[in-house]
């Protein structure tokens, strides 16, 4: 097998800068980010024969930055030149990468003037990385791309070359913030606020050169864990003063620090409930400490009872975020952002949009996505996720956050094709209106330009393919507990985690209606509440999320639930077999290391898809007693 490259160049190979390097380029403006632009251009010119012009000299490309902090820019033609006129240095950097994306088309004399600015002010990747190797979760929780690019052997890595390369990749997509440690903040990570702060400052210096602010996940009980106080009560003045002093020291070390990320009172993490306080009390305490510095606290809404009784059908994990947070609307300070998972459960392959995103008009909300594929194939399966994300109300959000998929794997994301999800989350944070398939085409053009046809064949509908051979009709989970890879239909069915499908001999699905179930459907505004309440109008792909139905229930598609399960699971596995053959036929124009890695992952995807097919179909055949109408083998 061919050895992978030391570090894959992803969507910024030297060839992506070819159109830049062959031209005369004038750069106007001052500041660190302008220096970064100048360095990027100089490298391109050195490779492809262009040159940087002196002030006032005629140029093919003019990159001009004003002095504001805005990230916006204009691009268009002026006489014989293409001009990027940026609001400020950050806008100039984004403008440069817009020229790189366009290549020769950026110099078309017919190029129309366009204004570009981000739709969302905060576009952040959250790394669930542990400084120490955690005994249960390893170094990167839910990471499928190797170890952390930041931390090794309990401290910051000595060689941070890859961090700089990562900053370049993120800036080229439009990301402007990164959280460098796990939301589950263990003891070592808690010290990053204090005696480990110098290591965070080193990372911040690298990211700063690409317009990216560093954030930290913090432990709500830090004053107690660090031994300074015997309480973390958010209304205790000594606690508030502790956070004020600690935050002052953070900004002395990192003047452009972005803020805190908090997971509190969820899955065992400490929080304000210990002291009889609520989430607004906890978040506002941290917000007060951050307010003087133009920084934010992001408070995760992923809060639920993970010790519930599976026998009690009135308890519904899907309701938890709404029940905890909707009553607090209007109580959060202006620099608090409540960070809401895009669906009400936990990054499943198919979920309705979280009702929290419609229920808090007086609170700043960020939508949280999971780029690392915990429940969507763990970067062993091809699963291009932006078609799922395109249905989300992103334009109305205060920010877009995503759990990063990156590790120290040579290809960054383990599966080379999983890079597309990382690229796309930045582009959609900048402009949620972009067509997901157009974004995919951008990534292919930059990363694997000779493979456009084959990669579109593999990736365009890969999310729907993954859905076909895994959990049906929106019911979710059905994965092996713990590591969450591979089928286990009843794996979470009788656990305290609250992820149930209630399959019995008569039917399957969760009754979340107002009339007879948990009432979750009624948490949506009209017309969505009415749409989901009725079996007749509930979309097929979400039917089992909202309703418990008989196996012979006829879907809107005209087929029965049980036949749909059989058909889709056979079709999904067949589709993966075709994807594998398609890739193997593309061996010629592909780098051997890339081809070998993708082929290896497709082999595993096919094995897994067939395992899903056989286990799901057999389970429901034995539950229902209804045979496949097409007579295919079900064990």
Automatic annotation (TrEMBL):
GO terms for biological process: xylan catabolic process. It holds the Pfam family Glyco_hydro_67C. The lineage of its organism: Bacteria, Bacillati, Actinomycetota, Actinomycetes, Micromonosporales. Residues 114-391 form the Glycosyl hydrolase family 67 catalytic domain. Gene3D superfamilies: Alpha-glucuronidase, C-terminal domain, Glycosidases. GO terms for molecular function: alpha-glucuronidase activity; xylan alpha-1,2-glucuronosidase activity. This is Alpha-glucuronidase. SUPFAM superfamilies: (Trans)glycosidases.
